[in-house]
Amino acid sequence: MTSSAESSDGDHDVELNVIAREQSSSASEADGGAAVTEEMSPLLTQAEKPKINIFTLSYPRRKPGEEVIRSFEPEISAASQFILWVWSGSRYSGLMCMAISSTIYFTMEVVTDVFSVQPIPLFEAAFTRCTVILVLSYMWLRKVGQPLSGLGNVKNLLISRAFMGYLSLMSFIFCIQRLSLSQAIVLSLTTPIIASVVARFILHETYKVAEVGGLACSFFGVLFIFLQLLTTQDQHDEGKNTSVSGSGHIYAILAGSLSSITGGISYCLIRAGANACDQPLLTVFSFSLLASPAAGICLFSFEKFVFPSFYSLSLMLVLGVLAFFAEVFLARGLQLEKTSKVANVLYMEAALSQLWVIGSARIAPTFGRIFGCLLILISVFCTMYIGPDKED
Q1: Which residues touch 196 (CB under 8 Å, ≥6 apart)?
Q2: Taking the alpha carbons of 242, 248, 250, 255 in that order, is the dihedral positive or negative?
Q3: Which of 289, 276, 377 is nearest to 331 (CA)?
Q4: What is the pLDDT of residues 314-338, one digit of tens each?
Q5: Alpha-carbon torsion 199, 192, 102, 389, what sign?
Q6: pLDDT of 6 strictly over 60
Q7: 341-365 core/surface letters (b: 16 or more CB in 10 A; e: else)
Q8: At what angle do helices 209-238 and 191-202 cross, to 10 degrees?
């Protein structure tokens, strides 16, 4: 008691200090409570806010073309990557390019079969196709900046390739005008075999037993397919007294043989020229540069020009564009791979054509046709499965 009385002022001070602390603590608690209340208030008042559903949300406005462009971007990139992989991104690129070329040639047959047009002379069709190839190849070479002059020794290879290719084309036109379609096709399908034989001497290529067996298997498949057609045509022509069975028939067979031989040499020159200039499109351009005006001269010299309708002209232009891509992939395949391997893949076109005719119910499926198609497809599949030769 005494100490408290003596220190009454001190007690008063202490009391004041205690009161200040209580006020400060109460103030801090009030501030903290207000903060907590403010933090909790959005949660507490959330039920009072208007409800939001899919009908009240505002979506960002986009132009109608943006979604379409974005949706096609992955497809375009995937297609471009596939083309790059086929062109030069794999050790199977040569075989894949030749398979695409054969598929395009088969597509041309389907388009010709489905869309019937007015009769067009063969020289006129060849002139239109070669002209389209000439224009497209020139535009492509200009776009990539490839010079067309100063090629040196490559120029001789390109000129020889153009001459042999044109001679093969003209001989085949002469042959198909005088022989039945099946006979002309069988003669033309000897071109891959002749190309493989010629490449042994011109390009000094060596062959394995599997490669020779693959070519033989594919050609036997061709014989199985067209054997019935050939025998039927011979029996049909026995009762006819026509001039085709005389010297004209022999000349037509010689023209077909010449077409196959020059076509085989042309394949070897394509491979040599494409490897020498490192641009397979130059071989396509050189051929069309000679074939287009020469076919035009033959058209106006030996046949009567038929003015095509708009529908026929459109179809001829489409076939010309397809022929251009087929020639480009063929040249690229010959540039990258051995002649015997890629030449065997060319027989795939004959098998696909027969399967299309059988599937469209235009001819009856016989054992010979089906067995021949299986032989060709098995041979081509084995060639693709074995792949190119391993580099040492």
Answers
A1: 207, 211, 215, 264, 339, 340, 343
A2: negative
A3: 276
A4: 999 999 999 999 999 999 999 988 8
A5: negative
A6: no
A7: bbbbbbbbbbbbbbbbbbeeeeeee
A8: 140
Distance CA 280, CA 328 (A): 7
pLDDT in tens, 165-185: 999 999 999 889 888 888 888
8 Å CB contact between 259 and 132: no
- Which pair of tokens denotes residue 367? 């054992």
Q: Quote the pTM value.
A: 0.75
For residue 371, the one-letter residue type is F
Q: How many CB atoms lie within 10 A of CB 274?
A: 25
Chain segment 30-47, per-residue pLDDT in tens: 454 544 445 455 544 444
| Count of other CB atoms within 10 angstroms of residue 388 | 17
The single-letter code of the amino acid at 346 is L
Q: How many Å apart are CA 305 and CA 173, to the nearest integer?
A: 16
| Residue 337, both tokens | 């791979």
Count Cβ atoms below 10 Å from residue 108 Cβ, excluding itself: 18
Domains of the chain, by residue range, sit at 94-386
Classify burial at 70, counting beta carbons within 10 Å of its beta carbon; exposed 0-12, middle 13-18, buried 19 or more.
exposed
Torsion of CA 190, 196, 201, 206, to 10 degrees: -150
Structure tokens at 151: 């090629």
SS (H, E, C) the chain: CHHHHHCHHHHHHHHHHHHHHHHHHHHHHHHHHHHHHHHHHHHHCHHHCCCCCCCCCCCCCCCHHHHHHHHHHHHHHHHHHHHHHHHHCCCCHHHHHHHHHHHHHHHHHHHHHHCCCCCCCHHHHHHHHHHHHHHHHHHHHHHHCCCCCCCCCHHHHHHHHHHHHHHHHHHHHHHHHHCCHHHHHHHHCCHHHHHHHHHHHHCCCCCCHHHHHHHHHHHHHHHHHHHHHHHHHHHHHHCCCCHHHCHHHHHHHHHHHHHHHHHHHHHHHHHHHHHHHCCCHHHHHHHHHHHHHHHHHHHHHHCCCCCCCHHHHHHHHHHHHHHHHHHHHHHHHHHHCCHHHHHHHCCHHHHHHHHHHHHCCCCCCCHHHHHHHHHHHHHHHHHHHHCCCCCC
Q: Which of 244, 311, 289, 295 is nearest to 121 (CA)?
A: 295
